From TrEMBL:
Lineage: Bacteria, Pseudomonadati, Bacteroidota, Saprospiria, Saprospirales
Protein keywords: DNA-binding, Sigma factor, Transcription, Transcription regulation
Protein name as catalogued: RNA polymerase sigma factor
MF annotations from Gene Ontology: DNA binding; sigma factor activity
Domain RNA polymerase sigma-70 region: 22-88
Length: 189
């Protein structure tokens, strides 16, 4: 039995240390999802806390039909969307939020004018300009390396819709980055 499964079983029996380990494992992911949707750090932190409270109180309802992470991300996604709707939060650019490391899929020789760190910042800013659903999809797929099927389960969209959105979002991000950085970006993407 894998370690995470043991933590889940123990947490269901009231073991707070086991639940704390689950929180420690997933807190950055939950926060990142909330931040991508809500665009405000303080609200995202509150939502992340609310998500783990919901998880703690509903852990018995986790049936294991999907991965625990998928179940957790679904709760995080829906909670953040609900808060965004209730508060009617405007989309705003994030200044300097640390939400994780983007996968480095870029070619070394294409980094002559733009450093990897600069590119990540431009990419983050471009994602921040997307609507919350699109930003979540990109974040789940690239940052959290979720499969299309899992993203569909989390968001409630079809797999075909997710694939179409990913294709269009990649083009949109490429276009945005090309406008900001010029042609050198083409070698990197």
């Amino acid at each position: 039995m894998e370690e995470e499964s043991r933590w889940i079983i123990a947490a269901r029996k009231g073991n707070r240390l086991a639940f704390r380990r689950l929180v420690e494992k997933y807190q950055n992911y939950v926060f990142t999802i909330a931040l991508r949707i809500l665009k405000r750090r303080e609200v995202a932190e509150e939502v992340a806390q609310d998500v783990f409270l919901k998880v703690y109180t509903t852990l018995d309802s986790f049936e294991g039909k999907s991965k625990f992470s998928t179940w957790l991300y679904t709760i995080a996604y829906r909670t953040a969307i609900d808060v965004a709707r209730k508060k009617q939060l405007p989309t705003q650019e994030l200044a300097d939020e640390r939400t994780g490391n983007w996968k480095d899929d870029f070619h070394e020789d294409g980094l002559q004018r733009v450093s990897r760190q600069d590119l990540q910042q431009y990419l983050k800013q471009a994602i921040d300009q997307l609507d919350p659903l699109d930003a979540s999809i990109i974040t789940l797929y690239y940052l959290h390396e979720k499969m299309v099927k899992e993203i569909a389960e989390i968001t409630g969209l079809t797999e075909t819709n997710i694939k179409t959105k990913l294709y269009r979002l990649r083009d949109r991000l490429r276009e945005t980055l090309t406008q900001q950085l010029g042609t050198e970006i083409e070698d990197m993407l």
